[in-house]
Specification:
12 helices, alpha/beta, Rossmann fold, homotrimer, 5-stranded parallel β-sheet, 9 strands
Chain lengths: 318, 318, 318
């Protein structure tokens, strides 16, 4: 099957989705990220791998946090970073997305980091670039409900860091899987890396219908779903869900699906807890868990910088 | 006549308008831009000409696209770039424009890139600087309906690139010339560089009254105006015009003044088509022309980076 | 008394407030700033003291001018600067302030420049960092009505530059002292540096009640208050005060407390006039004073860059 992420040598040229990425490409990204971990801990946190390259942050959907992580990663690679407040720019003037892209290409861009509310927008851009300029690369920083591949990759980095081996793990993903691009990316990554048991836990209204086809086991009860898990990935409950028809209330949600120390005690004693942030304390996670010994939520952020440096240097490095 | 753009040696110290620029100054900018064309094509797209200099983007009127081109150009010259979201800043607090400028001068600014909705604002700043600090420079990035000199210069670069010589050209400018600072800058540049025949094509309501005094031939009919032209410069139709009293409708405008392949066939077979962007496809230009072999719209963008690097390095370089 | 600004060796590790800073720490900052004055006057205005460090501008309250001065200072120290438009970011998504800070720490931040509408926010952050990461530093860029220490320090730098010695000065602070963090910072700095006579001048409604406990002499009459002063520090009258219940009108205010050449003539012949900007000409200060020979308002801005470079390099330098 045609995969616009890989060039004819099977090397990563865009990062659009974890779906369709071969295992060895994922492992290469994680290994490269490991080599960048010490850069961020240095006195001078810079390497010259993207020196003189132009990285454009194209955030059609606002996300200060994600944009910041990419901006830091690019600057630590010595790139020139240009943030485009795209909501107020040419698209608002009636220009088409691909005309905007063509213009930025003509400025000799090297890398586009794209966040978009519409699923598939980064694919559209990457396919267009494949026709017009093969030296310009795209990294998907989240598109609609579809994918958030760098989040998925940093979750895998985190799991590998604490558990070493994927081949004997039981991993639970908890919450609003239906609307979560993080969950989709994680499921594809976990499966590709050989995790034998992936579980999805959440209310019927927040789980998609096709999970069994992805090899995911579905639970509507936390006690059953968390039992003997090695890894628990909590999802953020979007504010708009809390008041919608899909849920009775935030309090009700917390009572059933919020991760408390009591519920976490059902997982393995050395279980780790992940969360993509920003957390809603008291909604999907209890503060005693968020700040407790099982949480690896802040290390995820640290690993996330290294993973984004790895992805950017692999697709666009000298 | 006093010209605040030139110092007492006749060298460019501010770029405010193409009107009043001697031919040799324009040619020097174009020649310098040519020398920068290879920088943007390098692996490491940087030269140290503005290293350690502070370039302030003062966009009193928002324009993400133009701001981006200046930011890239400044960063490729190794300058420190500070973007001021000036709409939300001190001016909103009742400070005068010149107090804001004096403050930024006191921070040891080197170069102001100024975009302003009021015609003449960059002149006001430049004249003030002439009195208080002759080491700080202004580049006009568009002021009201008055001038957009870097756009005019990149249009000249584009024409010279494709046609080599200005002395035997027939150039048509099409559209809303009345409200266009691009058109004004282009007309002055074309005349100064010796183009023998400059034409303006548009509806009566969108053409200014004094064009003949500038040596421009006026046409209200595309078939007559485009006949045997070497260069066609299309202007963007501002959205606010389309619904105003000046025009019947966008569709009607396109029927009479939109550039279609059929109309373009009346120009010379090797005619080139320019557009300052962002394009309104189906309003002032047909997609078959925008994407066709005569269009040089994306090369304009590439040349624009080199032209802005040239202007900034000439006025503020070490 | 515990002072989170100083480490166990008495060295500056955060700058939160001038209150509680020992005299020798203040003098060390001013001396360091003096050494940076020549950097901003160079052709290449950069030193590598923060090279590869990550400085985050966390402006919970918008202030383009103050943010710009810190951004320039950090870039001249060769830091990587990341501006967080924090109003639109994670805090808006319900994340707590300290979760936001923890996340940025996990990205290996080195320095937070914090502006916040709530008094004490930078203290809260600094105390948190003291627990979680002692290698990350905070500089208060203005918190509520509480403190604006870099403004206070640059005012001291300015006074020392023109008057050399603090021990024989009479200094008047004029205007809305009640709501002014600048006034509070100045009063603590002047007292610590040994100024024998500090005066506060303003209407009853705009002066706090405890000034005498700080050793400040209170005046409600400009003629009496300005008499024989060496230094006059004017405060900005916030727009919201002009229409509020605290003042009759801007015109009335100017008549009583606006600094005119006539009133200034009552001070010493070599008196200097400071203002933190942006000025309201014709409200708190007459243009003839603002632009006259006694004003040192623009030098304040220049010294402010050097002072901010000094503070940042002292707390976070290699």
């Amino acid at each position: 099957m045609y995969n616009p992420q890989l060039n004819s040598n099977g090397e990563l040229t865009h990062l659009l989705s974890i779906e369709g990425l071969p295992r060895d490409v994922i492992v290469h990204i994680l290994d490269t990220a490991a080599s960048f971990m010490e850069v961020s801990a240095r006195e001078v946190k810079k390497v010259p791998l993207l020196r003189g390259k132009s990285v454009f942050n194209l955030f059609f959907e606002n996300s200060t946090r994600t944009r910041t992580t990419f901006e830091i990663a690019a600057k630590r690679l010595s790139a020139d970073v240009i943030n485009l407040d795209i909501g107020r720019s040419s698209t608002a003037k009636g220009e088409t997305l691909l005309d905007t892209i063509d213009n930025l290409c003509a400025m000799h861009a090297n890398l586009f980091v794209v966040r978009h509310a519409s699923s598939g927008a980064p694919y559209l851009i990457a396919e267009h670039l494949t026709r017009v300029n093969r030296d310009i690369h795209v990294v998907n920083a989240g598109d609609g409900r579809h994918a958030h591949p760098t989040q998925g990759l940093l979750d895998m980095y985190t799991i590998r860091h604490y558990k070493q081996d994927f081949s004997n793990l039981r991993v639970a993903i908890v919450g609003d899987i239906l609307h979560s691009r993080v969950a989709r990316s994680d499921i594809h990554a976990l499966t590709t890396l050989g995790v034998p048991e992936v579980r999805a836990i959440g209310p019927q209204t927040l789980l998609p219908g096709h999970l069994d086809k992805l090899g995911v086991h579905v639970y509507h009860d936390m006690a059953q779903g968390l039992k003997d898990c090695d890894v628990v990935i909590m999802l953020r409950l979007q504010n708009e869900r809390m008041t919608g028809a899909l849920l009775p209330s935030a309090g009700e949600y917390f009572r059933h699906f919020g991760l408390t120390p009591e519920k976490l005690a059902l997982a393995k004693p050395d279980a780790i807890v992940l969360h993509p942030g920003p957390m809603n304390r008291g909604v999907e996670i209890h503060s005693a868990v968020a700040d407790g010994p099982h949480a690896v939520i802040l290390p995820q952020v640290t690993f996330g910088i290294a993973v984004r440096m790895a992805v950017m240097s692999i697709v666009a490095g000298n």
